[in-house]
Specification:
Blueprint: H1 9-19, H2 24-27, H3 34-40, H4 43-56, H5 58-71, H6 73-79, H7 89-104, E1 129-133, E2 141-149, E3 155-163, E4 167-176, H8 178-190, E5 197-198, H9 201-213, H10 223-232, H11 242-253, H12 261-269, H13 280-292, H14 298-309, H15 312-331, H16 335-348, H17 352-366, H18 368-385
Antiparallel strand pairs: 1-2, 1-5, 2-3, 3-4
């Protein structure tokens, strides 16, 4: 039902707060500011509030749509997830106009927008249970977050730094109230570098457990890990990691669709992902070897280095990293990149011939300074050995 008279966005939002008591504590502090509202609400609540306005206060809903469409980024992305099929003709027109403006800026907007399947901000409910994973940094380390109810009140947050090669590297445990928790989750999912995405809690536990199983003898896990292991690394029997979930989901959705390993090579070369180098001692041996070989055999030496680095254990861990990266792309709905990462994971679980091109690309990114130095030395030597201007 629309308003009997035109009202502004602040008053309309106050009415929305009264109609949506579960979101009221986040709506009211925004004081009618569209962008403060977006920062205070998670994605589900933002969508819920906007849909309520479009149905009950269409003029205010129109104002909010216009502001978020012009803002771009997360605000515009939220508009693409609203299915307006049940709205009034006027509300559908507002959404269509916003989508058209966004398309004109080069943003990809589906013709019929539906509810998202993945990549939404997790909602903190009364019985708190949230789990997230970040992308992998260039060294191969990532963060896993598990939130559970604290018996003493509020919530308990576990922040775990994990690595396929180096095991559980760090563990911090915090107690926090609901508002601080929501702010932390919002920050984790919106940060510029390695933003976190939601994952099933047993999948995150399975991921932490796999890293713990690979803990090097000379790098013990943090002392707190033994105390909290049952909370963060004890998944249900047979639980899949996030990457394994992505592999299963894409196999079911994309029957016959094969990922492109060449695209994975490009993602590595432009440093969108990877390069996830081998242990320092292995890398030092390779740098020493390459520094000693002549220019004519450098190419062959690099192929030999790929064989040396990606022995069975490290190749398997690299496969895991590509598979887990596929989950991140899948959650962001970058399906082509997700399939490329799954194809890369399959290659690293195959023969050396299957992953040699990809492995070499990873090594060349890691060794770029060394290779550049060798090339410069070669050019200097060639120049000094050549004829002088005064030669007959």
């Amino acid at each position: 039902m629309s308003s009997a008279k035109d009202i502004g966005l602040p008053e309309a939002l106050e009415r929305a707060a009264a109609a949506l008591p579960g979101d009221a504590d986040e709506i009211r502090p925004a004081n009618g500011d569209p962008f403060a509202l977006l920062s205070l609400l998670d994605a589900e609540a933002s969508q819920r509030v906007l849909e309520w306005l479009l149905v009950n206060e269409p003029l205010a809903g129109n104002e909010l749509v216009e502001a978020w469409a012009d803002a771009g980024g997360d605000a515009a992305a939220l508009l693409t997830r609203i299915d307006g099929s049940g709205f009034s003709k006027a509300a559908r027109k507002v959404l269509r106009r916003a989508h058209h403006r966004m398309r004109s800026r080069g943003e990809s907007i589906p013709e019929r927008v539906g509810q998202p399947i993945v990549a939404t901000l997790p909602k903190v409910v009364d019985e708190i249970a949230v789990s997230l994973v970040s992308g992998l940094d260039p060294r191969g380390t990532r963060m896993a977050y598990i939130v559970e109810s604290d018996p003493s009140g509020g919530a308990r947050l576990f922040a775990v730094a994990i690595d396929e090669d180096r095991g559980v590297r760090e563990l911090e445990v915090f107690s926090a109230g609901r508002s601080k928790l929501k702010a932390f989750i919002r920050d984790c999912t919106r940060r510029e570098e390695y933003p976190a995405v939601e994952a099933p809690i047993d999948a995150v536990r399975a991921l932490i457990a796999r890293s713990a199983a690979a803990q090097p003898a000379d790098r013990p896990a943090p002392r707190a890990f033994a105390e909290w292991r049952s909370h963060i690394a004890d998944p249900a029997e047979g639980a899949s990691t996030p990457g394994e979930l992505a592999r299963a989901a894409l196999a079911a959705d994309d029957a016959g669709e094969v990922g492109d390993v060449g695209r994975a090579v490009a993602l590595v070369r432009d440093q969108t992902i990877g390069p996830w180098p081998p242990p320092n001692e292995t890398l030092s041996e390779i740098v020493q070897r390459l520094s000693e070989v002549g220019e004519g055999v450098l190419d062959r030496a690099l192929d030999e280095a790929v064989d040396r680095v990606f022995e069975a254990g490290f190749a398997g861990r690299t496969a895991n990293r590509f598979e887990e990266t596929a989950y991140i792309f899948w959650c962001r709905e970058s399906l082509e990149d997700a399939r490329a990462c799954l194809a890369a994971a399959q290659a690293f679980r195959g023969t050396k011939l299957e992953f040699r091109e990809l492995g070499r690309a990873m090594l060349e990114v890691v060794l770029a300074p060394t290779l550049k130095s060798i090339e410069q030395q070669s050019q200097t030597t060639t120049s000094s050995d050549g004829p002088s201007l005064g030669s007959p």
